[in-house]
Amino acid sequence: MSNNGSFLGASFNKGINVTSRRFAHTDVKFPNFDGYRQDSTLDPTKPARETEDARRTVPHAVFYGVGGVISLMAGKEVVQKVVAYKGMAADQRALASIEIKLDEIPEGSTKTFEWRGKPVFVKHRTAKEIKNEKAVTVGDLRHPEHDDERVQKDEWSIVIGVCTHLGCVPIANSGDFGGYYCPCHGSHYDGSGRIRKGPAPLNLPVPPYVFKNNVVVVGSD
What class of enzyme is it (predicted)? Predict the structure, then answer.
C-alpha cells in the first residue's frame, strides 16, 4: 500500500458523503368521519368545553333511562315476593317460622333446629356462662358486640349455625371459648356466638325471634 492511499493499483476515497431527503406525501387522503360526529362537534375551531353539554345529552339519557328500567324491574320483583308471601296459606307461612319448646332443652346444653334450610343453635346457658359472656371486653373483639345486644333473655342464646368464614356448620359446646367450633378452618365462637379466634370475620348471626311463655318462635319479630 502506497502513501497516496492506493492499494494494488486501486484508489479509495477517504470520506463518504450521504444526502438524505424527505418526501411529503401530500397525495394521501384521510377518511371523513363527519357523518359519525354530532352536529355540535363539526366545527374544529370550537373549544370542547362549549360543546360539553350537547355531547353528554345522549349518554346521560341512556344512563338514566337504563337505570330507571332496572329500578322498576327490581321494584317489581320485591312487590311480587311480598304479594306472594301475603297470599300464602297459613300452613305455608308457618314454614317460614318454627316453634321451639324451651323446657325440652336442659340447662348447659345446646340443641340444633332447622329453620329455612339453615341450622339454628338454641343454647340454654348456665349462670357461669352468662357471667363469662357479659364480662368480655367488647373492644377486644373482632366483631364488637356486647352480649346484651345478642340475647333477649340472658339464659338463652339463639344463633344461626353457619360459620361466617366459608359457610360450614360449627360444632356446638366446643372450642376454646365454650361456644362453637368450626372444624373446617378452625374458627372459635364463644357462648354468645361471637368470633374469638380463627379466620371467620363476623359473629354468628342472630335470627329474628320472640318468646311466648315456654316457647320461642324463630322467624317472627
Answer: translocase
User: Which helix (DSSP H) or strand (DSSP E) does residue 178 occupy?
Assistant: strand 178-182
Question: Which residues contact residue 43 at a Cβ distance below 8 angstroms, ignoring those fewer than 6 apart?
Answer: none
185 catalytic, yes or no?
A: yes
Query: Which of 134, 128, 135 shows the shortest CA–CA distance to 108?
Result: 128
109-150 per-position pLDDT tens digit: 999 999 999 999 999 999 999 999 999 999 999 999 999 999
Residue span(s) of the chain under CATH 1.20.5.270 come to: 27-86
Indicate the pTM of the whole model.
0.58
Nearest-angstrom CA–CA distance, 107 and 161: 19
Give start-end residues of each CATH 2.102.10.10 domain in the chain: 95-218
Question: Which of these is catalytic: 60, 124, 146, 185?
Answer: 185
Query: 95-218 has which CATH code?
Result: 2.102.10.10
Of the candidates 124, 175, 174, the one whose C-alpha atom is nearest the C-alpha of residue 154 is 124
Q: Which residues pair with 217 in a beta bridge?
A: 99, 210
Calculate the average pLDDT of the chain. Answer: 81
Q: Model confidence over 13-59: pLDDT tens digits?
A: 555 555 666 666 666 666 766 666 666 666 666 676 666 666 666 66
- Reading phi first (left if > 0) and then psi (alpha if -120 to 50, else beta), residue 8 is in left
